[in-house]
Design goal:
5-stranded mixed beta sheet, Peroxisomal Thiolase, Chain A, domain 1, 31% helix, single chain, 10 helices, alpha/beta, binds oxa(dethia)-CoA
């Protein structure tokens, strides 16, 4: 008699796509009261990619998705669900995911966006995990895609130096296995009491879009940098430890950490608390800045492609972003 094995959710392919255009700290020095030295020392960022006209979350996301599908050996028409994690959708509606679906020809997929800003990808993984482990679906594409540059106030040196554009994607498959493999668990949280800590205050629901609101600079990102920094270190550490404990694992079991790429000092502080040697921590913000919901899947893809993540490695993803939202996921690769 065939024993029914538990459903697992395994990442079978990763992909990413970056805009060609590079903007360095030295470029920013020309128009802003800042310096390459300040940005490097306080953030670790040296350059970032900025979308050109015609590039958007859907175009970058679709290309990242195609690359993930190729890596997974999967056909677009076999995808059951597309989740695009973005806080910079192409248009107000329809969802960016529907544009991606059309672009890649994923004809049978249900497609929708989720909005959890930098934490979006971990939230998206968590949704995919439920559908795969319940046996409802076989193949799910989770994409993090952002064009943060469109929301920057390019005169605000405390924010515009931090962000960049790009997209990353993963294909997740249902797999029956006795062993705990693939996405072991995900842990996600929100605290709306701190909604204003990182916000683009201009919207569409409270008031009609007006010329005045645009002139008042409401459609750009505002951040309480120091407060966000502190809470990021605390929550990313806490939720990482929770994920380990949930799986009866310890810090010592970890092979690789893929943290959200907001600030090198945040990453170092979290790594220190997790007692992770820096060689095991993936960092790409020197080249890309903070790409919001795309940051973890891009870093994951680069780590896989450069062989820093290998089969059977225990991989931790950890993030905090606007909302506030935060989360972690543990993966047996
Ligand atoms: O992805 C979502 C999560 N986001 C984050 O986690 C971001 C968290 N926050 C941070 O990464 C940091 O707080 C920042 C990088 C945003 C700021 O670094 P900081 O070390 O907290 O600097 P600060 O805000 O305390 O500012 C220190 C000084 C100020 O000058 P005064 O008042 O001491 O004269 C700022 O005006 O640095 C000044 N400053 C700058 N100087 C040169 C702020 N931005 C710049 C700049 N260039 N770009």
């Amino acid at each position: 008699m065939n024993k029914h094995l538990p459903n697992r959710a395994r990442i079978t392919g990763t992909g990413s796509c970056l805009p060609e255009r590079i903007v360095t700290n030295l470029d920013l020095e020309k128009t802003l009261d800042t310096s390459d030295q300040w940005i490097r020392e306080r953030t670790g960022i040296i350059e970032r990619r900025i979308a050109e006209k015609g590039e958007s979350s859907s175009t970058l996301g679709a290309e990242a998705a195609r690359r993930a599908l190729t890596a997974a050996g999967e056909k677009p028409e076999d995808i059951d669900m597309i989740i695009v994690c973005t806080s910079t959708p192409d248009v107000i509606y329809p969802s960016t995911a529907c544009f991606v679906q059309r672009e890649i020809g994923a004809s049978k997929a249900v497609a929708y966006d989720i909005s959890a800003v930098c934490s979006g990808f971990v939230f998206g993984l968590s949704i995919a995990e439920q559908y795969l482990k319940s046996g409802r679906y076989e193949t799910i594409l989770v994409i993090g895609a952002e064009v943060n540059s469109r929301l920057m106030d390019w005169t605000d040196r405390s924010t515009c130096i931090l962000f960049g554009d790009g997209a990353g994607a993963v294909v997740l498959k249902r797999e029956e296995s006795e062993e705990p493999v693939g996405l072991l668990s995900s842990h996600i949280y929100s605290d709306g009491n701190r909604a204003e800590m990182l916000i683009v205050p201009g919207g569409i629901g409270r008031e009609t879009i007006s010329r005045q609101a645009v002139e008042d600079n409401l459609y750009t990102l505002k951040m309480e940098g120091q407060a966000t920094f502190k809470v990021a270190v605390k929550k990313m550490t806490e939720v990482s430890l929770e994920a380990l404990e949930h799986n009866n694992l310890t810090k010592e079991n970890l092979n690789v950490v893929v943290p959200h790429q907001a600030n090198r000092r945040i990453i170092s502080a979290v790594a220190e608390k997790l007692k992770m040697d820096s060689s095991k921590v993936i960092v790409n913000l020197d080249k890309l800045g903070n790409t919001g919901g795309a940051s973890i899947p891009i870093a994951l893809d680069q780590a896989v492609k450069s062989n820093r993540i290998k089969r059977d490695d225990l991989v931790l993803l950890t993030v905090l972003g606007a909302g506030l939202t935060w989360g972690a996921a543990l993966i047996r690769w």
